[in-house]
Design brief:
Elements (H helix, E strand, L loop, with lengths): L3 H27 L1 H7 L8 H26 L5 H25 L4 H15 L3 H11 L6 H8 L1 H21 L3 H21 L20 H8 L5 H5 L3 H5 L4 H13 L4 H27 L2 E2 L2 E2 L2 H29 L5 H20 L6 H30 L7 H36 L4 H18 L1 H12 L5 H7 L1
Antiparallel strand pairs: 1-2
Helix pairs in contact: 1-4, 1-6, 1-8, 1-9, 3-5, 3-18, 4-5, 4-6, 4-9, 7-15, 8-9, 8-15, 13-18, 14-15, 14-17, 14-18, 14-19, 15-17, 16-17, 16-19, 16-20, 18-19
């Protein structure tokens, strides 16, 4: 029997593990300006573009790895996959930093390391989500639990920035930032070896007190539509021969998933949300180092602390949105809440992009507000996906599972494409245009505006439902 203390242990380990993955990712964003100034081949005329290519290659490998690891989660123990991901991500991060000590200046070395690292990072999210889903599938506050889990990425950003700052201050080499952060994720992997539980081979959902336990006979009758096993065996063979091949069935499932209400809207919506978020995530530390505030040139160390404040804002925004979703989801106000949050982000971003000449405390406050208003809607967009997927209800349970998996892949896959193009778009703007950071911030704001505009139909539906006389929760869930 799974006790509450056992659930706390599982959740804490999952939180710590994904937190460790983000700690190991942070140096890649923080050292960009240092590489642009001091390290070949990035200190050449095309340095911005080369760094953007590295980010894009890593994210593309991560996106492809998600599909591979999702398949492996059905074949192997999730604990083993997570531990492998921790060690692989740690080793590749350390190898990236060792280029500083081995005096390596080959772009292909950095590119191969980033691709392998991106693929290694993909071993974190799918198995951890499967573990959490297994142990918390019947929790009332499951949506808040899963949304709050997203705050570990921003907490990892904060700690990664602090670690990188102290490593650079102590050793005065950019390579040590990668080595220390790589050792952190390896240490997390060792902790998982000892304390992370193994999922049962079938990983069936936990039974609660209200779940009926069926006998073999009842289970056989239920799967055959109420017919006995003998009656099922006596069905004409023509019914079997008329079934479509698996490939045609998968194509039909894909087209059927596309026709589900809101799937295309939320897919394109998540594309622009992730494009907006990942531009800042990969380039905001570099922007900090290009500033001079109150006559003080922002150094690498100050850039780390500013990025930590941005990550802290993301953590606050994620937890706030998670609590709001838990309280208000019954009224189906996801799209409206996102549009309001995105509007606040655009306003704050406009003020923020022109605040580099203000007092440093005001600037830090703006950095915090940007973290809250940007990553809050990002977390809300992630929370919307389960609400859309949960509408899938068919008579055939197996068909229902296929539609859920296909719809999830469509939405998340489209969002991953946006994440891939985000950093590269920023790099191209900085490399080839004279508008520089102003155009980058315009891209971020425009992407979030388009993401909010795509949900305008959903906002109208939610508003009409709230103004109706009978805003029943069930009706709202059907139209979300």
């Amino acid at each position: 029997m799974v006790t509450r203390s056992y659930q706390v242990q599982v959740y804490s380990l999952a939180f710590l593990t994904y937190f460790g993955f983000y700690v190991s990712r942070e140096p890649y964003s923080l050292v960009k300006m240092t590489l642009l100034k001091t390290w070949a081949p990035f200190n050449g005329h095309d340095g911005w573009l080369l760094l953007g290519i590295l980010d894009t290659a890593s994210l593309a490998a991560y996106a492809m790895g998600i599909f591979v690891v999702g398949y492996l989660c059905e074949k192997f123990d999730c604990k083993h996959l997570v531990v492998f991901g921790c060690f692989a991500a740690g080793v590749t991060t350390i190898l990236y930093g060792m280029a500083n000590f081995w005096n390596i200046h080959s772009f292909w070395y950095f590119l191969i390391i980033r691709i392998v690292n991106g693929f290694s990072e993909s071993f974190g999210y799918p198995p951890l989500i499967k573990i959490l889903d297994y142990y918390f599938c019947h929790e009332v506050a499951r949506d808040f639990i899963m949304t709050a889990f997203g705050s570990c990425k921003f907490l990892g950003i904060v700690v990664g920035c602090v670690i990188s700052s102290f490593a650079m201050t102590t050793f005065e080499t950019w390579g040590t930032c990668f080595i220390v952060c790589g050792l952190v994720i390896i240490l997390v992997g060792m902790i998982d070896i000892v304390f992370m539980p193994n999922l049962p081979p079938d990983a069936l959902p936990l039974l609660d007190e209200t779940t009926p336990i069926l006998s073999n006979k009842e289970r056989g009758e239920q799967s055959s539509g109420g017919k006995s096993e003998v009656e099922t065996m006596e069905q004409p063979l023509s019914n079997i021969s008329d079934q479509d091949p698996e490939e045609a069935n998968n194509k039909e499932t894909f087209l059927e998933a596309l026709k589900l209400p809101g799937i295309i809207e939320y897919s394109v919506h998540l594309f622009f949300v992730k494009l907006s978020v990942y531009v800042l995530y990969y380039w905001i530390p570099t922007w900090f180092e290009s500033l001079t505030i109150q006559g003080v040139k922002i150094t690498y160390v100050l850039s780390c602390w500013f990025t930590a404040v941005w990550g802290l804002g993301g953590c606050i925004g994620t937890l706030t949105i998670g609590a709001a979703v838990f309280v208000t989801k019954v009224y189906g106000l996801f799209s409206t809440a996102f549009s309001i949050s995105a509007s606040l982000f655009i306003l704050v971003l406009y003020w923020y992009s022109d605040s580099s000449t203000s007092l440093i405390l005001i600037f830090l406050l703006m950095v915090l507000c940007v973290g809250i208003t940007q990553n809050g809607p990002y977390s809300l967009a992630s929370a919307c996906m389960p609400a859309v997927i949960n509408r899938i209800q068919t008579v055939d349970t197996a068909r229902n599972d296929k539609l859920v998996g296909m719809a999830t892949g469509i939405i998340d896959g489209t969002g991953s494409i946006g994440a891939i193009f985000g950093p590269l778009s920023g790099a191209i703007i900085l490399q080839y245009t004279t508008w520089g950071w102003s155009l980058v911030f315009l891209l971020v704001a425009l992407s979030m505006f388009i993401a909010a505009s795509i949900l305008s139909r959903q906002v109208c539906m939610e508003t009409m439902k709230c103004c109706s006389e009978d805003p029943s929760p069930q009706a709202n869930e059907d139209d979300l």
